[in-house]
Write a structure and sequence with these properties.
The protein is of the alpha/beta class. The chain contains seven helices and ten strands. It is 30% helix and 25% strand. The strands form two sheets. An eight-stranded mixed beta sheet has the order 3-2-1-4-5-9-6-10, sandwiched between helices. It has a two-stranded antiparallel ribbon with strand order 7-8.
């Protein structure tokens, strides 16, 4: 299977950060669980508004890349994604999980621990697969997220319920925009129906589509006067 080009991944994750930044003022600490090589970390560091970066990444091979992504900002790198006890309570302005929550066996416990780390006005941003998406409907049981690595899969309603039970307010859920090279999309679509075009040149331009993922934003109860209830715009 083809792999999405790094510039397309970078464009996708830059969009995630920009959406979180539009949610409210950025300040305090930055926390990310499973930051991979640090696409969003680099975007956050470039804003020069976070006083400390807390990064939880089990793959030690990318730790040097993560330090570089954080630039000259203070950074703490830890390999255990589920133990965030080192982070001071009420200190985090933005907490991020991109394609991490669906891998957790006890997501509610993790979300509850994260909520305690958010400062007043802080934001939690989560990106997950949307099992109610058009892509999942079209692909049926061939939808790639149906795998052993995903003990949990979510749709807008189940995500809103989970965040509410974990104590969050101001929940907003929407389809996320992912960037893909045109040749990647064409090859994947044709392979799904049994046609291979390995040697046929195709355009490599990148396009952004709201295809099969959703982005969830939430805050703490202290923000309830500004943003209450649940807003879901992720319906296909």
């Amino acid at each position: 299977m083809d792999v999405v080009a790094r510039d397309a991944i970078g464009a996708t994750q830059r969009g995630y950060f920009e959406r979180a930044a539009a949610q409210g003022p950025l300040a305090g600490g930055y926390l990310e669980i499973g930051p991979d090589v640090g696409y969003i970390v680099a975007e956050a560091a470039g804003r020069d508004v976070f006083d400390h970066f807390w990064l939880f990444e089990p793959n030690r091979a990318v730790h040097d890349m993560l330090r570089a992504a954080a630039g000259d900002r203070p950074v703490t790198l830890l390999p255990d994604m589920e133990d965030i006890s080192a982070v001071p309570d009420a200190s985090i302005g933005l907490a991020v999980m991109v394609h991490v929550l669906d891998h957790l066996l006890d997501p509610r416990a993790m979300l509850t621990r994260l909520r305690a780390k958010l400062r007043p006005g802080g934001t939690l941003m989560i990106v997950t697969h949307n099992e109610r998406s058009l892509l999942r409907t079209l692909m049926g049981l061939r939808w790639p997220p149906f795998c052993l690595q995903h003990p949990e899969l979510y749709n807008p309603d189940t995500m809103a319920d989970l965040l509410g039970r974990a104590g969050y307010t101001g929940v907003r859920i929407e389809r996320s925009r992912n960037h893909f090279p045109v040749d990647f999309l064409a090859r994947q679509a044709l392979e799904a129906v049994g046609i291979k075009l390995d040697r046929v040149p195709l355009p490599k331009a990148t396009i952004g589509l709201r295809l099969g993922n959703m982005l969830s934003l939430a805050g703490t109860p202290a923000q309830a006067t500004a943003r209450t209830g649940v807003e879901i715009t992720a319906a296909e």
